[in-house]
Amino acid sequence: MTVLSIRHKTTYRYRELVQLGPHRLMLRPREGRDLRLLSSQLDVLPEATLSWTNDVFSNAVATANFSDLTEQLTIESLAVVELAAGPWPVFDIAASAVRYPFDYSDEERTDLGALAQPHYPDPPARLADWARGFVRSQGTGTLALLKDLAAGVAAAISYQSRDQEGTQSPVQTLDRGWGSCRDIAVLFAEAARTLGFGARLISGYLYNPDRPLTAATSEGSSTHAWAEIFLPGAGWITFDPTNRAVGGHNLIPVAVGRIIDQVMPMTGTFIGTSDAYQGMSVEVQVTS
């Protein structure tokens, strides 16, 4: 068991007084078999009215509503979690899915629904053709195929931090040969979907006390994005293609979704002049 303290502070600055619209915040770590949430606190300045709900994926969502004009917005999340995931996971994949290709059961395919369907248009099937290149032979090992795909994404795409809003399409990422962790996660998930797998995207935190990983700060912690693939028997298996990793022993999930826009930590609007927005800063600390 590892107990971690997470501090995530985001500050938005404006050149003049602005009226803030509702802000959607997804910052509360997601409890599960390998993660227990010990405490969670969310502070917002200027003062806001917070309302909590769960979305269709059971993510905890806070909506902040503001009444005062302001030149600065600060959102700080403090959480303590207990991680139980091991560094060398063993996946009990059902015999029917050990070899690729395999068929999901009718119930599984119905429940996966859009999670098993490509999201981005790809009329020339460039992404599908690229993904099929990792299928070594008919009846190849399913887990080996997914590991090869994750390694292939990491080999083809150089990590590059990108502060701009939005996410590149998978084909854009392939063409450019670089992307942020969210671009890389989207490419991997979408490529897996073209092969018939159910996939979902995850946002959260990356922690490594021994050495900085790709997408990590010098302290070994960062906001991060990765993906999960559903395999019968094993359930949802974590793949971090940015770091060529399988399993989530150093990952703290916050939100899951079908597309990356559904798992953004915070989104919101303001009313002001077109040049009112001055910039933002993000601080993330994950410590044991």
Describe this structure in words.
The chain is α+β, with helices and mostly antiparallel strands. The protein has two domains: 2-84 and 265-287, Immunoglobulin-like (Sandwich); 95-263, C8orf32 fold. 17% of the residues lie in helices and 43% in strands. It is built from five helices and 16 strands. The chain has helices at residues 106-112, 126-132, 142-156, 170-176, 181-194, and strands at residues 2-25, 35-45, 48-54, 60-66, 69-83, 99-100, 140-141, 158-159, 178-179, 198-207, 221-231, 235-240, 245-246, 251-257, 266-271, 277-287. 35% of the residues are buried. It holds the Pfam family Transglut_core.
Short description:
The protein has helices spanning 106-112, 126-132, 142-156, 170-176, 181-194; strands spanning 2-25, 35-45, 48-54, 60-66, 69-83, 99-100, 140-141, 158-159, 178-179, 198-207, 221-231, 235-240, 245-246, 251-257, 266-271, 277-287.
Decide which structural class fits the backbone: alpha+beta
**CATH fold-type name of the largest domain:** C8orf32 fold
Q: Please report the total strand number as a whole number.
A: 16
**Beta fraction of the residues?**
35-45%
Level-2 CATH architecture of the largest domain: Roll
Sheet with most strands: 7 strands, antiparallel
CATH structural class of the largest domain: Alpha Beta
| Approximate shape | globular
Q: How many alpha or pi helices?
A: 5
Could you say how many structural domains there are in total?
2
Mean pLDDT: 92
Instruction: Measure the end-to-end span.
Output: 11 Å
Radius of gyration, in angstroms, nearest whole number = 20 Å
Written as H for each helix and E for each strand, in order along the chain, the element string is: EEEEEEHHEHEHEHEEEEEEE
Low-confidence stretches: 212-221
| Residue share in helix | 10-25%
InterPro entries: Bac_transglu_N, Papain-like_cys_pep_sf, Transglutaminase-like
GO biological process, one term: proteolysis
Pfam families: Bact_transglu_N, Transglut_core
GO molecular function, one term: peptidase activity
